[in-house]
Amino acid sequence: MKLIIAAVMVLSLTALLFIIFRKKLGFQWLTLFGTHLVLSALGVYVINFSGLISELYIPLNPMTVGTVMMLGLPGVALLVALKLIVI
Q1: C-alpha distances in angstroms, 2 versus 5, 6, 8, 9?
Q2: Considering the entire predicted model, what is its pTM?
Q3: Is the pLDDT of residue 80 over 80?
Q4: Which residues cross the membrane (predicted)?
Q5: How far is CA 26 from CA 30, 39, 44, 46, 75, in A?
Q6: Which residues of 26-50 are buried (b: 16+ CB within 10 A; e: fewer)?
Q7: Could you give the C-alpha distances from 49 to 14, 31, 38, 46, 72, in angstroms and in order?
Q8: Residue 8 lies inside a defined structural domain of this protein
Q9: Is 22's pLDDT higher than 80?
Q10: Number of domains comprising the chain
Q11: Which residue segment(s) compose the domain that 66 sits in?
């Protein structure tokens, strides 16, 4: 089973690299991704340590940073609302 999973991962990585270099995207997408990653983590960090809401702490993990990366500032608002309402 591990061999099958490893083969699928290698095949997926090969296909992804083929697509990236076939369309001549280069490494520009990596810079954009890194910028979004840093800004997303910074947004969650600012919410955690700003002191505006004292009981609020959003964990800084890949899931929360990924949510903020995809949704932007509305993602931060979504996480704050979920934390205040649901949890």
Answers
A1: 5, 6, 10, 11
A2: 0.64
A3: yes
A4: 32-53, 65-86
A5: 8, 22, 29, 32, 28
A6: eeeeeeeeeebeeebeebbeebeee
A7: 41, 27, 16, 5, 19
A8: no
A9: no
A10: 1
A11: 26-85
